[in-house]
Amino acid sequence: MTELVFRKAEEKDIPRLVELNIRLKRLNEEFDPLFKTRDDIAETSKKYFAEAIKSPNSVVIVAEN
Hints:
By secondary structure, the protein is an alpha+beta fold. It has one domain. It has 2 helices and 2 strands, in the order E-H-H-E. The chain has a two-stranded antiparallel ribbon with strand order 1-2. Helix 1 (14-31) packs across helix 2. The longest helix has 18 residues, at 14-31. GO terms for molecular function: transferase activity. InterPro entries: Acyl_CoA_acyltransferase (IPR016181).
């Protein structure tokens, strides 16, 4: 069995976080006809995660094995 390690996200994690966020939003779009993914989702997500990782008011956790 693979052991998962949870840790605080770092800047190096942003590309993968953006990719996963885009996949999630596109999946939501498939099931909810009222939900539309923005054209600038990659840029918006990158900015969001960069700010959240640095913010003392946010916690971004990643899991890796």
